[in-house]
Amino acid sequence: MRMNNFLLQLSAIVLHVLCVCESFKWRIPIGAIFDTEDIQINTGFTYAVAHSNERTKGKFNLSALIEETDVEDSFKLATSICSHLFSGVFVLLGSHSFHSHGIIKSYTNKFAMPYFTTSIPTGVTDGNHGYEIYMKPPVTEALRDMILEYEVKDVHYVYESDAGLIKLQELLKILNGTDVKVRWHRLHDVTNAHEDLRKLDRVYSGFKNSTILMDFNSEPAYDKVLEQIRKLGMNKRGYKYILGTLNILNLNLQRFTHGGVNITGFQLLDYSAPNVMEFLSRWRSLPPRVWKEAGRDQISVDAALAVDAVTVVRRTIQSMLRNNTEVFRTTFRRGDVYNNNRTRGIPCNDGNPWMHGNAIINNIKQIDPRGLTGHLEFNENGMRKGYKLDVFKVGLKHGPYKIGIWKPKDGFQLISNLNESHNDSTLGVETIRVTSILEKPFLMLKKAPKDGVPLVGNSKYEGFCADFIYSIASKCGFTYDLRPNKNGVYGKKFDNNTWNGMIGELIAKEADLAAAPLTITMEREEAVDFSKPFMNTGISIMIKKPEKQKPGVFSFMKPFSISLWMCIVIGYFVVSFGIFLVSRFSPTEWKRIKMRTGTEYLNKFTLKSSLWFSMGSLMLQGSDTCPRSAAGRIIGGTWWLAVLIVISSYTANLAAFLTIERLLTPISSADDLANHPDMSYGTLDSGSTQDFFKKSNVHTYKIMWNFMKNHYPSVFVKTSAEGVKRVRRSKGKYAFLLESVYNEYFMNQEPCDTMQVAQNLNSKGYGIATPKGSKLRQKLSIAVLQLIEDGTLIKLKKKWWVDKGTCGASDSHGGSKKKSLSLSNVAGVFFILIGGLVMAIVLGVANFLRSKSKGRLGGVPIINNDAARSLLSDYRDAPLNNENGQTTSSDVHQSVPVKGILMNTCKLNSGENSNNSNHTIRSEIYGNIYNRKTLHDR
Ligand code: GLU
After folding, report:
1. Which of 194, 247, 470, 677 could bridge to 301 as Cys pair (CB 3.0-4.6 Å)?
2. Could you read off the pLDDT of 141-173 as tens digits, one per residue?
């Protein structure tokens, strides 16, 4: 007890110390000012702060202070800034509008407050050493290089806001000295820009070799305008667009893959970079109810930049602490931030600059951490340097594919010529042609939606592979076009070394990868490349579930075999006869009774009473006659022992036999199937299962292959669904050899009448296949392993196999299930009871009729009072035998022997029933009938 108290106290102290240590951590506030519409940026920032604190165990914790306001409103903006300064924020973060730029700049300059912004750099000129840190890299130079690379002579610059005008200014400046002419078109409302776009179209058509350069503030603005462009038919061959976005992969460009339009743009976030993949796997799993606009496969550039800003702040503070551990010694007092050891926070009315402002801004410019958007390196003006932009192009039949990269210093490094059509589909990040197979539950056509809008592209499909390739594509950062194999064939090698099915498609370069339940085999591995396996399986046997055997009405007989029942019956008769016999010979079983007429000898063990004794023992009811002789008792004892064992064994087995519905499967192994006289079996045509039997050297499988070959093509099926249908219709005469994952799926589908028998015949795995030498292979393998490790594949398997299953758990396993007893289980017992009752009634009625005809009712003579009295007086002195064989006499309750039947006479109720003409003597008939020689002889 004491020890326990001590331990409790000790742990309380330790906890306290830990808490105190934790509270010693400095809380470094970061102030953020977001517009009410900046939801994803807000979420990205908050999540990054929370995650950074979780991950880094240092001397400080970051703390997010967020003000949501209308950034267009200068007064509100100024109030928010002052509120943050008063709270003692170390740095500020926000996206400012073009108009608010001046206000922010004046505050940050006055108070030496570092300000991170996700907006485009505006009005930054060399030598302007402000406190702004521009997270977004400038794109103007990249646009200029692209215009020059395309050799465009006329540029139609399309913009939507004043910020666009600033960029246009910069563009004009840097294009100065070239022969490029720039015309500009402002869209007044991006959601309804038809008119403006029509005008643009008219102007654009008048020029040869011109390009439309679109530069908008947000990703939704691009999507809206692109949609209107499609509707206006400006997505045909001859139209060229350059997009000023930094996140071309987030735009829906699938709708531009058919008309021959040429679209080029940039991508800042490298979806294939390990740190981006790691972040996105966390981002994807965030619940959107808590983390608004998170829980997606993609993140907007601005949100990613907010995340990177937090990384920069954390690394800056770390670096300052590394340089001087005492740097913040006077800054913190009782958890509050003090400026110059004088004021709490940085009050706007005080006018004193932030004491660490300059140190922080200088440190930011010295570090180079890696973020989601690449190297987070800044120049003197707070602008990004050392970043790179991937260049993407949307080609005919393909979504965006990477054509090169652009770096501020090096300019373009193109993988393929800008004007070349895309033909090597496995370079970098691009739209990949994905082949697959329409097999349940891997890939299925979605049902048409109720609103009548037809499904297009990848959204037409659902299933494990649809979800799987979606996750893989987001991990590897490519877009894809899912087109199932037209013939629904996996891939079989012919004698002339050609392949059909998906393998054939890959070899012919008609597809870039196969995301399907494609088994990795040695022969296929020689023809194509496989990723690491994403699912394990093996060949299994599917049969129709046999009908369950219901216990019959006489199933209570089942616990014992017929021979055992026979033994019990024989034993019963032998024991009865044995007891009868030994009782005859044993003097102890004979009783002497003195009667008026002489001495009589009685033996209770007649043949009938012996049978009754054995029956009573067998039914555990006992009997009123028990053997008295030693020999009789030995027989009785041994019979009781036997009965005890027999009845206990019976009881123990009974419940199981009455309640279990049994499944008697016709086969339980491949050998059973191979030797079954009238069951046929087959596999999928052109699949790896067929190939396995063809090549196997195992004796049983060879026999099976010979059987299948001899029954070619009848035993083979085109699809797994066809094989399953055949099993269901064959009334148990056809077994389907298929991979266990299919077997598991169909077993769990209505009408729940198939089952898997025996263990898997082999073990193998499914992999993503690519043409030989594809650069995608490595990426795919890494993505597959990531999906396995983060549990995505387990979740997908559960979704398509278990959650979509329609059979109950016990049904799906084909096992037996316990349930309560029904009448049908034990009806036989009641039949016997009814039989016994009917027999007894028939016997009773027969006895009654016989006795009545002789003047007696039920064996009791019908007598009046006088007759009864005379009868009594006649027998008053007659000797009566008691249990001990002694004789007694009494005037009431006497045993009166009448014609071999010993009766208890009762008091005559003559007094009370004197009016009755006939009085009956009520009597009880003893079960044991005495063997009375004298009476019989009478
Ligand atoms: N997964 C198999 C293949 O890749 C098809 C199914 C089967 O043969 O049972 O060929």
Report:
1. 247
2. 999 998 988 888 899 999 998 888 888 888 999
Sign of CA dihedral 286, 292, 296, 298: negative
Ligand 1 nearest atom to the CA of residue 490, by list position: 10
Give the list of residues 6+ apart from residue 18 with CB closer than 8 angstroms, or none. Answer: none
What is the 8-class DSSP label of residue 352?
A: P
* Residue of 519, 542, 717 to mutate, ligand 1, most atoms within 8 A of C-beta: 519
Contact by Cβ (8 Å): 754, 543? yes
Structure tokens at 118: 């996700």
pLDDT for residue 755 is more than 90: yes
Strand residues in 506-630 grouped as ranges (E): 513-514, 528-530, 535-537, 539-544, 590-595, 598-603
Say if CB 708 and CB 715 are below 8 A apart: yes
Pocket test for ligand 1, best of 528, 688, 696, 763 (most atoms within 8 A of CB): 688
Which of 524, 525, 684 to mutate to test ligand 1, by most ligand atoms within 8 A of the CB atom? 684
Which one, of 281, 282, 279, lies nearest residue 304 by Cα?
279
Q: Count of CB atoms within 10 A of residue 782's CB?
A: 17
pLDDT at 144: 92
**Are 149 and 413 spatial neighbours (Cβ–Cβ below 8 Å)?**
no
CA distances for 368 relative to 136, 312, 793, angstroms: 15, 8, 36
Distance CA 930, CA 606 (A): 9
Q: What does residue 659 show for φ and ψ, rounded to 5 degrees?
A: -105, -20
Ligand 1 contact, 234 CB (< 6 A): no
The residue that leads in pLDDT, 905 or 468, is 468
Copy the structure tokens of residue 568: 């019990």
pLDDT by residue (tens digit) across 512-530?
999 999 999 999 999 999 9
